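Figure caption, in words: inputs first, then the predicted bound structure.
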Amino acid sequence: MRLLMQTALCLVVIWFGLLGAGPVTERQGEVALDAAYAGLASEVATAAERVAPGQAVQSEEGAGSLILADQLVDYSAEEAKAAAKPTVYLTFDDGPSELTKEVLAILKREEVKGTFFMLGKEVKQYPGIARQVLQEGHAIGNHTYNHVYGELYGDFAVFAKQVMDTDDAIFKATGVRTNLLRAPGGTFGNFDQGYFDALAKAGYIVNDWNVDSGDSKRVGVPEKEIISAVEGSRLSGKVVVLMHDSSIHGESVKALPEVIAFFKKKGYQFSVLTDQVKPIQFRLAATLKWKRAKVTAAETLTLVQYTAKTRAKPAAPNTQSLLVHAGERELQFAPQEYSMQSGTIAVPLRQLAIGLQGIIRLDMTNGIVEAVVNNQSVSWTASEAGGSGKSLPSRIMVPLRETLQKFHIVINRIAVTADRREIWAEPSAI
Ligand SMILES: [Zn+2]
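Bound structure (zinc ion present):
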């Protein structure tokens, strides 16, 4: 039975006028959302405050030096209270590489998840492996593009550029944007407050570590040494382990099963770093390893604008009703009846079609919905309508502008006031 529901008779509405299509944009809304985003970023900055500096230490990634608890901002006490079990975050830096596949196989076999801080240049070379990391449920973080300390820490503009290039490379390979970031070599002695502040303002979460596997303190650190470095570390309720999965780290892969077994035996649960996990950060060093100019406001702004542009903005709840004038028809949608995200308004198809004196036909057998409006017939499959398989959702939401265009109706004006969004549309000349 094809015709299950006919909600209205098709009336051909006569439209007049030749109209140009105006873009549906709402600067006012975007500005408000930008402000909300900026607010979020500054909260992140506050959350990442670090403890006051104590004695100076060498704490370079791969230097294998012991990291003392008082050198870290350690949120473990607070988080351990909340967590039923102590948590370990295994992190793998400098990949992806061919070895990453072996790491993934071990993690899969052991049923644990990890976090991979990737270099943009390696992501570009191994996009399929980057994708596999994500598909298997692990987290991805940004580890800059080329890892060259002299470039990254000689000039913040270069650091920022590498972060953005890597962000883009990860997005291109995996389809996701990551806010997780690890500084090559760690932040200690490399970052000044300007680096921390600019990255926090842009929404990046800088993660150092509190257990160094020592797998990078020289080339070819043997498996046994890696295992004993981990086992000999001071452990807390929240452990972030530094390991590496670039092509030269075969010994790390060999050590990994035993590292995992060690934390399992100690009763740790394994988790991935996210935006919601407070980062472990080294405190600021009294003296930097580098001589460079201060981070400028313009450099910070470039990075802030980049993330504002590339991240989906959170959907603000509608407070306004939506009024659509289409020729002589007037359609009203209450705030809860439509959605507005990133400049796109979605409305219920049935309400739209009926309001425009069209008809809707639901073909439940084949999972197809057809709307005829303004003499134009448009169909959606169940999956296009937001359902699955051949099952149509109970409420079908469609993008307003695009759907009107399919009905040969164009939006030519939009106005926004405190209590409503108002749109004027007319049929286009055929
Ligand atoms: Zn690294």
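The pocket of zinc ion is lined by residues 61, 93-94, 143, 147, 184 (CB under 6 Å).
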